[in-house]
Amino acid sequence: MILPQFSIAGFPDAQPVEGLIGGLLIGLAGAIMLLGNGRIAGISGLTARTLGLTKGTPWPIAATFVLGLVVGAGLFLGIVGPIEATFAPGWGWLIAGGLITGIGTRLGSGCTSGHGVCGMSRLSPRSLAATATFIAFGVITVTVVNLLGGGW
Amino acid sequence: MRALIGLISGVVFGFGLALSGMMDPKRVRGFLDLFGNWDPTLAFVMGGALIVMAIAWRIQARMHRPVTCENFSLPGTKNIDARLLGGSALFGIGWGLAGLCPGPAIASLAANFVPALVFVVAMVAGMALFKLADR
């Protein structure tokens, strides 16, 4: 990637430039869904809809969006190159994390995309409360896991 | 047309996730590691996304209808209740355990198929369990 190199003092591992530009694209994707199809680009809800686990959004919109996520990431890999990714050490983390994420996002009607990006930018009180809650519990969880010696 | 818009939105979203570094669970976990080795990258991602979406909402307010259909279909609920907070708390715990939220997990099927699939299958199982229980 030919992007300006910029690092934040004290945080040598952070990627502020890639993060910001990637974030702008994520916002653009949300804008396309909102202004084009009149809907929120909420990934947990659209995934559930694609698999017939909820009603609401017309199926063609949900299914193409979810497919698009994989295609978009694949395009990046094909055009730009491989990405760095370190996954949790073992399936236990992934299964537990996935199960709880699945239940939680349905119960709370949203995740980082719907509540975090689309809802917060709309200044929705529900989404602000949801986002503050899941970030807080994410921080608590990582901190507790680290204290128990399970950090990765 | 509406399917094409959905596809374009998904593709741009997935490409943005890959560029942003958010498909690296360790980096996302690093953002949540506030009291340890904190990685602020996710804040830049969220900031960038919020800037564009805030503009989109201003445009939306002036539009009579979206491009592909008659009406906007937007969440109308206002109340902050136990379901919202409890569900968000659970999601936060899952997010902290695996360093994945639904978007990066699905997009990661293109990059790290096996671990991403394990997470996504478990997530879908969780959604299905919720549907069974929530009658």
Features:
heterodimer, A: 152 residues, mainly alpha, 6 helices, 66% helix, B: 135 residues, globular, DUF6691 (chain B), Membrane protein (chain A), membrane (chain A), cell inner membrane (chain A)
Please, could you describe this protein's structure?
The complex is a heterodimer of chains A (152) and B (135). With 152 residues, chain A is mainly α. Chain A folds into two domains: 1-85, no CATH class; 88-151. In chain A, 66% of the residues lie in helices and 0% in strands. Chain A has helices spanning 16-37, 43-50, 59-79, 91-107, 112-121, 125-147. Chain B has helices spanning 2-20, 25-32, 41-62, 82-98, 102-107, 113-133. Chain B is globular and about 45 Å long. Chain B starts with a helix and ends with a helix. The mean pLDDT of chain B is 97. Chains A and B meet through helix 1, helix 2, helix 3, helix 4 and helix 5 of A and helix 1, helix 2, helix 3, helix 4 and helix 5 of B. Chain A: It is a multi-pass membrane protein. Chain A: It comes from Croceicoccus naphthovorans. Chain A: Keywords: Cell inner membrane, Cell membrane, Membrane, Transmembrane, Transmembrane helix, Transport. Chain A: It is found in: Cell inner membrane. Chain A: This is Membrane protein.
Oligomeric state of the chains?
Answer: heterodimer
Distance between the termini of chain B: 35 Å
The SSE order of chain B reads HHHHHH
- Assign an overall shape of chain B: globular
User: Termini separation of chain A (Å)?
Assistant: 27 Å
Spans of chain B of at least 5 consecutive residues whose pLDDT stays below 50 are: none
In angstroms, what is the radius of gyration of chain A? Answer: 17 Å
Percentage of residues in strands of chain B: under 5%
- Percentage of residues assigned to helices of chain A: 55-70%
Strand content of chain A: under 5%
Unreliable segments of 5+ consecutive residues of chain A: none
